[in-house]
Every structure is written in structure tokens, then in C-alpha cells.
Design brief:
The chain has about 250 residues and is an all-alpha fold. It is built from 10 helices and no strands.
Length: about 250
């Protein structure tokens, strides 16, 4: 079964659900560690890393067959550059991913109102130094590289690779591995260690988007595939291409 077996609405619902639950789990783990358990920042980051890595694995395995489980505008943009998705799909996925992230952070806050209070919905004042912007750019390049390479290999390990890449990035990079513009936007609206102040969030969004574009260009060269336009140029006797076009129509 492939994503072509599902309707556009099903794909968008999958992207919304995946984006919302990703942010929900990430922010909830931070609020639990920081606001409820009063753990140290280092333990809090470990909480976020483990929870996010595990849930990303589940998201990709669960929703990958439906929408591809991008849940990340930087990934969608990268796959647009490589020719794995078309412009129409990108225009539909990206707004849904951002809306899903905002819903996810709101739901996470609501689940902690009774234990922490309404201050969970504060605009974050957590600063992220300028040097962390480079970590976001490079980390997104690594994440997208893992995704594209394993797509090319038709691997069943994409979920594990994505979970490990982001989880290790959270505990091993200066930016604590957002690597995702919709996650950066959503985390403006939470208190505690998972938050990020608005200006730095904008820079993270820019850095990760540029990282996605750079990775897309690199993999378009390293391991190219026919673009959507090229796929329409079938060769004589190429039944595979003709079957694909019939399925897409």
C-alpha cells in the first residue's frame, strides 16, 4: 500500500494528527520534567529527547503509508526540491502542519493546568543564542539526509532513523534539535524548558527551512530521481510509468 491509495483529505488529516501529537508529546514531557517533577534542566532535556524520539518512530510507522508522515515543513520543502512531492502537495501539507503544531501545544498546556496552573500558556522567554541557529541548519540537513536516503533505499527503518536523529539531536546539539519550523512556532506558546522566545523561533524556522532546501539540493545531486515532470515522459514499453500515471489520475 502506498500514499496514492489514500485521498487528499486522509493525507491532510494524517499530517495534522502527526504534527499535533508530535508537539503534544514534546511539550508535555518538558512540562512534566520542569513544572511537575522539578527536575534539573539536564534531566528535562533527557525527558524531551526520549519522549520525542519514541513518538516520532510511532508517527512515521503509523502515518507513513498514508501521507508519508512529513509532520515537518522542512522535510516537505526538501522533498519538493528532490521531486518526491509536487507543489500542490507541499502547499496543502505545510499549513496543516503548522496548525497541527499549535493545536498540539494548546492541548499539552491544558493537560497540565490542574498541576501547574494557567501560566503554562505564557509566551516563552527562553533565549536561544545565535550559535544555535547554525545547529538548527546543520541538524536539519542531517535529518533530511536520513529521510531521503532511506526513501531511496525503500527502507522499512525510516521511523527508527528519524526518531534516533531527532532524539540524539535533542540531547547532543546546542539547539536541542527543533529541526522543524512548525515545532519552533508552537514552542513559543509554552512555559518551561521546552519554550523559545519569538525572535529566536523565527530564526530557527528560517534556519531549518534553509537546511531542508540545502539537503534537498544535495540529495537531488547525490541520488537523483525523476521529478514529477520527468515521470510524464514515459519510454516505449515502460509499463511501470504508465501504471503510475494511471494511479495518480
Amino acid at each position: 500500500m502506498s500514499t496514492s491509495d489514500f485521498t487528499t483529505t486522509q493525507k491532510l488529516v494524517a499530517e495534522f494528527f502527526g504534527s499535533a501529537t508530535l508537539v503534544f508529546v514534546l511539550v508535555s514531557s518538558g512540562l512534566l520534567a520542569d513544572g511537575v517533577l522539578e527536575a534539573s534542566p539536564s534531566i528535562g532535556v533527557l525527558f524531551i529527547g526520549l519522549a520525542t524520539a519514541g513518538w516520532l518512530f510511532v508517527i512515521v510507522q503509523m502515518l507513513g503509508p498514508i501521507s508519508g508522515a512529513h509532520v515537518n515543513p522542512a522535510v516537505t520543502v526538501a522533498l519538493l526540491v528532490t521531486g518526491d512531492v509536487d507543489m500542490k502537495t507541499a502547499r496543502q501539507y505545510i499549513p496543516v502542519q503548522f496548525v497541527g503544531g499549535l493545536v498540539g501545544v494548546g492541548l499539552a498546556g491544558l493537560t497540565f493546568v490542574s498541576t501547574i496552573g494557567w501560566e503554562v500558556f505564557a509566551i516563552s522567554a527562553v533565549e536561544r543564542p545565535a550559535s544555535t541557529w547554525l545547529a538548527e541548519f546543520f541538524g536539519t540537513v542531517l535529518l533530511v539526509s536520513a529521510v531521503v536516503s532511506l526513501i531511496r533505499q525503500e527502507s522499512e527503518w525510516i521511523g527508527l532513523a528519524v526518531g534516533f536523529t531527532v532524539g540524539m539531536g535533542i540531547i547532543g546539539t546546542s539547539s536541542t534539535a527543533f529541526f522543524n519550523p512548525q515545532v519552533a512556532l508552537a514552542r513559543i506558546f509554552t512555559s518551561g524548558i521546552a519554550g523559545i522566545q519569538p525572535f529566536d523561533a523565527v530564526m530557527f524556522m528560517l534556519a531549518s527551512t534553509l537546511g531542508g532546501i540545502a539537503a534537498g539540493l544535495m540529495w537531488r545531486y547525490l541520488w537523483p530521481r525523476p521529478t514529477p515532470l520527468d515521470r510524464t515522459k514515459s519510454k516505449p514499453g515502460d509499463d511501470t510509468v504508465l501504471d503510475e500515471l494511471a494511479a495518480e489520475s
